[in-house]
Each structure stands twice: as structure tokens, then as C-alpha cells.
Amino acid sequence: MVFRNMRYSLDVTDGTGRSGCARRKSKREIPSAKYLGEEEKRFMSDLSTLAEGVAVDPLVGHPPDYHVFHKFIERCQQLPAMKTAVVWPLSDVALRGAVEAAEAKLIEPTLVGPESEIKALAAKIGVDVSPYKIVNAATEHQSAVTAVALCRSGEAQAMMKGSLHTDELLRPAMSRETGLRTARRVSHVFIMDTPAYARTLLITDAAINIEPELEDKIHIIQNAIELAQALGIPEPKVALLSAVETVNPKIKSTLDSAALCKMADRGQITGGILDGPLSFDTAVSKKAAKIKKLVSPVTGNADILVVPDLESGNMLVKQLEYLGGAQLAGIVLGARVPFILTSRADSAETRLVSCAVAGLLHHALHPAAKA
């Protein structure tokens, strides 16, 4: 399913805070260039097969020394459970995951789907759904429409994907008239817990925006910055990834990176420190940055990795999971409420962490809900 991109007007303002582009020194000469590219079609797709295919059993066993995921769950214990519409929970994993998240006091679920089938599945797998509200919906499409309506009315503060396809969930959510759109472009963020990297690592966008243009990346970055702040990073360091660290007129991602850094200087992107273009090694390794004579607060300390396109991002996420033993969670941002996209192969902890991340974001954006 493909959604056409919306155009946005940009508000150019003067930056007044510390946030902005990192000042990077390099002994390399940076060639001057003008952006001569032609405007292309822009597409947005939920790419359900990719989003669902990320969390499978990795080839590398997970080491025990994880850094961040358990902290998110612990923080949520001090917050009210988030009212969550669980859409079509008609698989063992989907229903059990919702119940486990409720038992962990992360969500207050409303199960949306055929009531008789939900109760029958609950009896079969041995979970008790009697404490939770069930809203009857006969089809996947009806359950998604109903969940969107619950979110629009305020009865739900998030949506959690059950066993329906992702495109079936997002289609009504992205409706201009009756959906959950905002002025922001919708984007996806993977939250990584990587044994080799002692920081929370966010990667965006590796699941929704296929080939984002410059104005799309403004929204993608701002969404990720707000999520990082909700996760406890007051001023996240944002690495704009490319293959090289210098601006090259033949590599579009380097031109976008340079423009985005200047936008941060001018206050069009706020809340984070941006630097780019950066290659992956210099973004996460101080040693690599030193060898390449790059001096920046972002190099070796990146909190957010902004990938040039979906393909590179999806491959990066899978490499970290399969070869680096990383655990991951993921949510969709930019709508009225966060969407929790769980996979059929997600571990119990991953499902819980995705709920915790969505809860922390909700309470950060709506402080009154903490009361």
C-alpha cells in the first residue's frame, strides 16, 4: 500500500537555544556544490513485510549485558498505564503480548475484534481477558477503523498491532478526514539495545519512508528527537549517515545532511545536536573519528542515526540484530498517538519494551496524563 506524500510549509526562525548543528572541524577540504537534483516522486509505504520481517530469531545469541531496555520498563512503573487499543489480537503472540503488557502495568488494553473468537483464543492459550474491555469488530478492517475512532475520541492513547497486516492497520489511521494524521509526516523509529554500544541507539527511518526527500527528513528527525527526549536524552546527538564525511554533489545524502545541519542552526529543527554527513563508523566510534581527524560532539556518541533511505536503514538494523546480537523495539511516530508495531516473532521482552517506549513518549508529550 502506498500513501502519497503531503507538502509542508517550512517556518524559518532564528535559533535561540543550544540546539543546532554540531560544529565539526576537519583538515579535509570540503568541495563546494549546488544542489542540482530534479524533484522526484515521493512515496510512503508501511512496507508491512519489511516491518514484520525484522524481528526473527537472530543468528547470534543475545549476550546478557544489555544497557537500556530494562530501564524503560522500570520508568513506566511510576506512570499510569497507557490506554491502548489492541487491534485484532487473534494470534497466540498478539493476545498474550497484550495481556503480559497489561500485567506489567504498561498498558490498559481495549481488545478490538470478534469477542467470541478472542475469548475462545484466551481460553485455549490459558490467559484471562475478563479484566479487559472488548470492543466487538467482525473484520480486520472494521477493527482498525474502530481502534482509530477510539484514539480520536480519547478513549485510547495508543494503538497496538495484533495479528492483522500492518497496511490494514495504517490505512484508516492515515485517512485525511477520519484518521490520525497531524502536520507531521509519519515515521518509524527502531530503538536498539546493543551490547557493543553503551547508549540507547535510535535508527530512523527503516520501515515506512522509502526514499525521503529533504523536507520529509525534517519531520523524521524531529520525531526521533522528541522520542529520544522522552526516553531520557535531553539533547540527543543526531548523526546524518552517508558513505562519506564530506559534501559530494554526486551523493544526495551528503547534500541533504549539509542542508539539515544548517536548518538546525536556523531553528527549523530543534532539540538536538546534528552533524553530517557522517559514515557509520565515525558516528559510533571515537577511534574512527580520530583517525579521520573529525572533531564533533556527535562523532562516537550518536544517539540517533538518520539513514538516507529505507533500504540502507533496514539492512543496518538487521545487521545489528543478526551479527551484533542487538535487541530492538519499534514504534511509529508523527500521528496523534503512537502506533506499537509488534511482530509475530517478537520476544516477550521486545513487546513489553515497545509498549514502554510508547508509554514514555505519550506521557512526555501529555504531561497532564501523569496525574
Write a concise synopsis of the structure shown.
By secondary structure, this protein is an alpha/beta fold. It contains twelve helices and 16 strands. Strand 11, helix 8 and strand 12 form a beta-alpha-beta unit.
Detailed description of the structure:
The chain is 36% helix and 18% strand. The chain has helices at residues 48-53, 69-76, 92-103, 115-125, 140-153, 166-173, 214-230, 252-265, 280-284, 286-291, 310-322, 348-365, and strands spanning 2-4, 20-21, 25-26, 43-45, 82-87, 107-113, 133-136, 158-161, 187-193, 201-204, 237-241, 273-278, 294-295, 304-306, 327-333, 339-340. Strand 11 (237-241), helix 8 and strand 12 form a beta-alpha-beta unit. The longest helix is centred in the last third of the chain and has 18 residues, at 348-365. It has two domains: 79-181 and 335-371, Rossmann fold (3-Layer(aba) Sandwich); 183-334, Isopropylmalate Dehydrogenase. A twelve-stranded mixed beta sheet has the order 2-12-11-14-10-9-15-16-8-5-6-7, with helices on both faces.
Features:
12 helices; two-stranded antiparallel sheet; twelve-stranded mixed sheet; Rossmann fold; Isopropylmalate Dehydrogenase; 16 strands; 371 residues; 2 domains; disordered N terminus; alpha/beta
